Amino acid sequence: MRRLDPRAHLVELALLAVLAVAPVLLPPLGFSHDLLSRALNWALFGLGLDILFGLAGLLSFGQAAFYGMGGFVAAYLLVSGTIQSVWLALLVGTVSAGVLGLAVGWLAVRRIGIYFAMITLAFGQMAYFIENGPLSDYTGGENGIAGVPVPVLGFGTYAVRITAGLPMYALLAAAFFLGFVLARRIARSPVGLILRAVKENTGRVAMLGHDVPAYKLAAFAIAALYAGLAGAMLGPFQSYMPPDAFALETSGQLVVQTIVGGVGTLVGPLVGAALWLWLRDNLQLIPGFGPLWKLVLGLAFIGLVMGLRRGICGEILHRWRVRRDAAALRMARARTAAIEAAGGTPATPATPVAAEVALAIPRPAIDGRAAEAEIALEAQGLARHYGGLKAVDGVSFRVRRGSIHAVIGPNGAGKSTLFKMLSDEVAPSAGAVLLFGSPLTGSGVSRAAQRGVAKSNQLNQLFLGLSVQENLRVAALSRSRGRFRLDLLRPADGRPEVEAQVAAMLTVLDLTERADTPASVLAYGEKRRLEIGMALATSPNVLLLDEPLAGMSLSERAATCALIRRIGRSCTVVLVEHDLDAVFGLAERITVLSEGRLLADGPSEAVRRDPAVQKAYLGAVQADAAETRESTHEPA
Amino acid sequence: MPSTAALLSQAFNGLALGSLLALVASGLTIILGTLGVLNFAHGALFAVGAYTAFVMMQATHSFVLALLGGSAVMLIVGFAMERLVIRHFYARPDEDQILVTYGIGIVLVEGLRAYFGGNSQRVPVPSWGVGATKLGFMIYPTYRLQLIGIVAALLVGLYLVLYRTSVGLVVRAGIENAGMVGILGIDVRRTFLFVFAVGIVAVGLAGMLYAPVVAVTPDMGASFMVQSFVVIVLGGLGSFPGAVIGGLIAGEIISLTSAFDSAYSEVMLYGLMALVLVARPQGLFGTEGRV
Amino acid sequence: MSLLEVEGIDALYGDSHVLFDVSLRVEQNEVVALLGRNGAGKTTTLRTLMGVLKPRTGAIRLAGLPIHGLPPARIARAGMQLVPEERAVFGGLTVEENLRVARLTAGKPWPLDRIWEVFPRLKERRASRGRTLSGGEQQMLSIARALIRDPTLLLLDEPFEGLAPLIVLDLVALTRRLAAEGRTIVIVEQNVSAVLDLADRVYGFNNGHIVYEGQAADLRANPAPMRGFMGLAA
């Protein structure tokens, strides 16, 4: 058994201490035991929303559906006598809410932002009307369910009824504490890291090979389970299950409390709930002020969203972190400024480099007949039409295994669209892509990535809020864990092969000193390297690079070309690039596109001398000028 | 199986409800389309409209004056909201916009409750709308018929503003690409202010017109707001024709279902929405533009 | 006084397009081309001139009037007009409605007939919605929408991108006509041969810096300096 290091669990210990002393110290300040208990119930409910919104960035206005579901299932089972044990009823209620969460989530997670909020709100209302209408024989309709029994701990003569007051407080505190510990583990698990990445850039997470809808659905179901447990405990706690558990106001109150307390902090929901309930109970005592408490709260909420949008705990945590990281961040920024001022990273790597890029995680195996395949990637008559515009119009070519292959062509020739079809980001209007002889088209971008096709983008798609090593970790986790895995309790940095891969990539990219720097702070050239490095960190068989040199300084170009050459020793590379010097220096074969069609395809030197290519690519004036000059002096 | 007369009467109820929903949803959808803001205070503004009618009725004893005065009040409310709060949120994430408008909704509803109390208020049916009208095949409350007519006229008016004036031209261009409208020399912020205020007047008028039919309470707009969300999902976000047709469909679904079993009326509505989301997520009239 | 004076602007765009200390000038009746690789900062420069992006430092003057920091609408009314790379035709509006929107705030707008004269193709399609137009027609509409405002300075961002060669020829001819009429134009274009034919003067961009300034005629005669900012195997 692992020894518990108290320092690693400071937050948990602190929370435990606060929960223990709260019922002693807080009542004189207007926090009755009942109020604290209610706050804990709301806080448990809010933990789920904090995971859903704080971690995954999905704002739900329909959490009441799961709260009510858990509550009414448990209350009905107990009051009808179907189940005797309150504990079992809590379990069944929680699971029912989770199942409902899977169903609603399946529809909701396909959408984001405005759509997501509206869909969850509407399903919340649907649940409310079902509870009040067709199911009112079971739920008591507007009357709710009265007489819900309290839980009993122990057997026979030792049985302890957990009654209102301190015992109930202790039970709710224990539930919240366990929920908190679990939520913290989830936030620090690979799933938590991937959800944070989803919040930053959903598309890139899918490109790296993770099943984004499945992870979002998991977050949704987890939130529903938290809501279900909190709802199920409400009946026994109040010995009454109120119908307004399903109401829109419940969802709204949860959102407001969580935001006020601080979203993404996990203690925010508790602070927010305590504050809301305290204001309600105590402001109502002031004569003439009673009806105004919610108005005051609403105004405070608007102010909070306009100004301090991190919420109370979020703001405290943020300031603490800023102070803690100030020095490191200042240094990181200074370094970035120095790099930018020097016009890019110096081309002298600190350590001598190996000839090949060594990866800690093996590439996907190529089995059976494919193992002998000479052709890594094949485009068969690929076409993509947007309305009347034929961006790509029937392009076929083959990429030899282990080669560096370039695709060039004037702007608007269809290179980017072609590339997106190679990685199955965009579905072709006609034609297909084969990977080692078997069809790739139609599998979707995350499956394509799992099969060993990685792509770096023309415009950086980094997770700007994550550190450099976290960016790489998200990528490496996809090869190590597959498209989807619910390893909620494992730490994100707990896989040795992933950590070895991240360390190797940091060395390869010359970013080791920047491992803990947020990606947003990096210099442009460093961001560009990280963009390529993330694709490489998935241990691909085929690496697609879309304009890897775009915007780089001359020295950075040279360094990146050397890197691509090293990668090319052990991996098939296909690149789109405008810098023809670089292309002719790197690629063994070149495919030329013009206006969506294949213009030329062949060995680098043959393509270079092809007059049709010269004319299409450089334009008539250039080609003429080049011819006249060719005779006088050779280009470098 | 309900009788034909009962079904017909419910169909008319559906028309009345549907036209109100269309008015509420058109305000919501043009604000969403042009400004990109989903207004979670829309339900509260419906109630503000109804209370304005209540106050104006007491002061003037004329429903027409109440509608005119109420529209002026809603216009001011809309201007103030846009200038003081919404304007600062155009560049913020969707979630922030939703939260701040939700907060405004709380403040408005609680403001009404603090001032008027939690009990319901009654707005009398205007003198010209009292009683029932014989339609040959059935008898139907006169005011509800007039309500359908007035809302239809308002929607036609909104249509004319959007499709026959240069301001409407700018609004429709702005729904597609507000940035480009600015590049063409038009002050987008003024357009946004105008659109927001028009949207608020639309929902306020819906509240005023509905006031004589129901009990006026601070929370009366909540269900209308959620239903109008369903309407714009059905019709397609940002689509004015979609809001009108979607509103009528929603109104008929609610009313006709309750002719059979009222417990299922709203359930059917949300069920339809789920179906649309699965089968045609861009809505009936939406195009793959702004989602 | 030059029509457009840009002094030492710095601009940020997302995390990838950056301008460092860009200074340039455009004289009345001049056609100036901005050349450079993808991501070199040409489009960012045009967007900054138009006010879509705010420069962090530096000054921009149009006919002596400082315009940096103004919103795009004010800059447009001062006489500058950008035809953006993505064309940004209003797809739900008809061709004629697209043009009417553009006219609204123009000081001396062209009559529609003058647009129809220049673009007979658009006249045929005047009642069609923008989204039903072909790529070339959309580009024409986008340029027409700028011209109808009779701008003193026209900014064209990659007007020939993704168009069939015949249409490019048409558009080059049109641009040449506009230049011959004495219109001042700043053009960003990857099609080097087309743009060198059109331009009087050229600025070369690399990594957000201006690295070259010279006469287009000189570059036509000797393209060698372009290696530094176009990366061409010339």
Automatic annotation (TrEMBL), chain A:
InterPro entries: AAA+_ATPase, ABC_transp_permease, ABC_transporter-like_ATP-bd, ABC_transporter-like_CS, BCA_ABC_TP_C, BCAA_Transport_ATP-bd_LivF, LivM-like, P-loop_NTPase. It is a multi-pass membrane protein. It is found in: Cell membrane. GO terms for cellular component: plasma membrane. Residues 377-620 form the ABC transporter domain. CDD domains: ABC_Mj1267_LivG_branched, TM_PBP1_LivM_like. It comes from the Bacteria. One of its GO terms (molecular function) is ATP hydrolysis activity. Keywords: Amino-acid transport, ATP-binding, Cell membrane, Membrane, Nucleotide-binding, Transmembrane, Transmembrane helix, Transport. The chain crosses the membrane at residues 12-31, 51-79, 86-106, 112-130, 166-183, 214-234, 254-279, 291-308. Belongs to the ABC transporter superfamily. This is Vitamin B12 import ATP-binding protein BtuD. It comes from Methylobacterium gregans.
From TrEMBL, chain B:
InterPro entries: ABC_transp_permease, BCAA_transport_permease. It comes from the Bacteria. Keywords: Amino-acid transport, Cell membrane, Membrane, Transmembrane, Transmembrane helix, Transport. One of its GO terms (biological process) is amino acid transport. Its main location: membrane. The keyword Transmembrane helix applies. The chain crosses the membrane at residues 12-33, 40-57, 63-86, 98-116, 143-162, 192-217, 229-250. One of its GO terms (cellular component) is plasma membrane. The keyword Cell membrane applies. It is a multi-pass membrane protein. GO terms for molecular function: transmembrane transporter activity. It is found in: Cell membrane. Belongs to the binding-protein-dependent transport system permease family. LivHM subfamily. This is High-affinity branched-chain amino acid transport system permease protein LivH. It comes from Methylobacterium gregans. The lineage of its organism: Bacteria, Pseudomonadati, Pseudomonadota, Alphaproteobacteria, Hyphomicrobiales. The gene is livH_3.
UniProtKB/TrEMBL annotation, chain C:
Keywords: Amino-acid transport, ATP-binding, Nucleotide-binding, Transport. One of its GO terms (molecular function) is ATP binding. Pfam families: ABC_tran. It comes from the Bacteria. SMART domains: AAA. CDD domains: ABC_TM1139_LivF_branched (cd03224). GO terms for biological process: L-amino acid transport. Residues 4-232 form the ABC transporter domain. Transmembrane segments: none annotated. InterPro entries: AAA+_ATPase (IPR003593), ABC_transporter-like_ATP-bd (IPR003439), ABC_transporter-like_CS (IPR017871), BCAA_Transport_ATP-bd_LivF (IPR052156), P-loop_NTPase (IPR027417). Belongs to the ABC transporter superfamily. This is High-affinity branched-chain amino acid transport ATP-binding protein LivF. It comes from Methylobacterium gregans.
